[in-house]
Write a structure and sequence with these properties.
Organism: Streptomyces albiaxialis
Strand order of the largest sheet: 4-3-5-10-6-11
Shape: flat
CATH architecture of the largest domain: 3-Layer(aba) Sandwich
Largest sheet: 6 strands, mixed
Helix content: 25-40%
Family: Belongs to the LysR transcriptional regulatory family.
Keywords: DNA-binding, Transcription, Transcription regulation
CATH class of the largest domain: Alpha Beta
Pfam families: HTH_1 (PF00126), LysR_substrate (PF03466)
Number of strands: 11
Radius of gyration: 24 Å
Protein name: LysR family transcriptional regulator
CATH superfamily of the largest domain: Periplasmic binding protein-like II
Number of helices: 9
Length: 291
C-alpha cells in the first residue's frame, strides 16, 4: 500500500470535521467533485469505509474516527517540523519559553537571571499562555521550552527538569468567612455552597462535573473570585497575579505541585542547553508546604 499523503489527509480531515462535502470543499478552496473522488480513492487504498453517506448527510465510521485522530496528529507533526526547521535556520532567533500567565513568576525571574550569567546565552522570548496550553505550543513548534506543573499539565513525551515543589492555596473573595482563616483543608473548600470551586478544562478539553463556573482564562477567574462567585485551589506561587479583592489561604492537605522545565525530546540546540544548565544552577527544589 502506498504511503498516505498530507494533501489527502487534509481533505479527509475537512470532510470529517464538517460532515458535509460542500462545506469541506468551500473550506479547502476546491470544487466538490475532486474532493469526493479523493476521499473515495483514500477509502479504496485503505480498504475500509471511512464515511457513511446517505440522504441525511455524512457520518464517520469507527475506522473514520481512528483516521481523524491519527490524521490530525500527523498534520500537526508536519506543521511543527516546518516551524522548527525554519526557526533552526535563523541564527538570530530567540529561544521561545512559554509559561502560564501569572504562574511561577519569581521562579521565572530567577531562571532568566541565571541564564543571563551563561556565556553567550541566546535571547529568550517569553510567551504567556492560558492554563494547559503549554503542551500544544511545544508540540506544534511555536515554543522551544515551557514552564509546566506536575500533576496538572500534560507532560507526556517531553524531557523535563524539576525546579520547584510547593504547596497550594485557596484563592477566595475578600470578605468571605473562609478568607479570615489561617489555613484550610480540601474538605472545607470543596463543600462551600455559596462558593463552588471553579472548573478548568481537562487535557482533552472537557470540563469536570460540578456546580462551579467553567473558566479557561486567568482574567475570567480573577473577576469571578472578586465578585464572590467562585474559589480555586492553585499553587502558592500563583498568588502573584491575585487582585486586591482576593485573599489567599493555605490548603494544608492539598497535593504538592512541582514546577518543571519541559522541552520536546531530541532537542539539542545550544540555546536550550544553556537554559537547562541555568535551571540546574538554581537552588535545589524547595518545598513550599504550609505545615
Amino acid at each position: 500500500m502506498h504511503e498516505l499523503e498530507t494533501r489527502e489527509l487534509r481533505y479527509f480531515v475537512a470532510v470529517a470535521e464538517e460532515l458535509h462535502f460542500g462545506r469541506a470543499a468551500e473550506r479547502l478552496g476546491i470544487a466538490q467533485p475532486p474532493l469526493s473522488r479523493a476521499v473515495r480513492q483514500l477509502e479504496r487504498r485503505l480498504g475500509v469505509r471511512l464515511l457513511d453517506r446517505d440522504r441525511r448527510g455524512v457520518a464517520l465510521t469507527e475506522a473514520g474516527g481512528v483516521l481523524l485522530r491519527e490524521a490530525r496528529a500527523a498534520l500537526d507533526a508536519v506543521a511543527a517540523a516546518a516551524r522548527r526547521t525554519r526557526r533552526a535556520g535563523d541564527p538570530k532567533r530567540p529561544l521561545v519559553l512559554v509559561t502560564k500567565a501569572g504562574a511561577s513568576h519569581e521562579l521565572l525571574r530567577g531562571l532568566l537571571g541565571a541564564l543571563a550569567e551563561e556565556p553567550g546565552a541566546a535571547p529568550v522570548e517569553v510567551l504567556l499562555c492560558e492554563v494547559g496550553e503549554q503542551a500544544g505550543l511545544l508540540r506544534d513548534g511555536r515554543a522551544d521550552v515551557a514552564l509546566m506543573h506536575r500533576p496538572y499539565d500534560d507532560l507526556a513525551g517531553f524531557d523535563t527538569e524539576d525546579l520547584y515543589v510547593e504547596g497550594q492555596i485557596a484563592l477566595l473573595p475578600a470578605g468571605h468567612p473562609l478568607a479570615s482563616r489561617e489555613r484550610l483543608t480540601l474538605a472545607e473548600v470543596s463543600d462551600v455552597p455559596d462558593l463552588p470551586i471553579a472548573r478548568w478544562p481537562r487535557l482533552d478539553g472537557t470540563y469536570p462535573d460540578g456546580p462551579g463556573p467553567e473558566v479557561h482564562t486567568q482574567s475570567q477567574l480573577a473577576q469571578l473570585v472578586a465578585l464572590g462567585r467562585t474559589l480555586l485551589v492553585i499553587p502558592a506561587s500563583s498568588r502573584a497575579w491575585q487582585w486586591p479583592g482576593h485573599v489567599a489561604v493555605p490548603v494544608v492537605d492539598a497535593p504538592d505541585v512541582t514546577t518543571v522545565l519541559a522541552w520536546p525530546p531530541k532537542s539539542h540546540s545550544p540555546a536550550l542547553a544553556s537554559l537547562v544548565r541555568a535551571a540546574s544552577c538554581l537552588r535545589p527544589p524547595v518545598t513550599g508546604r504550609h505545615d
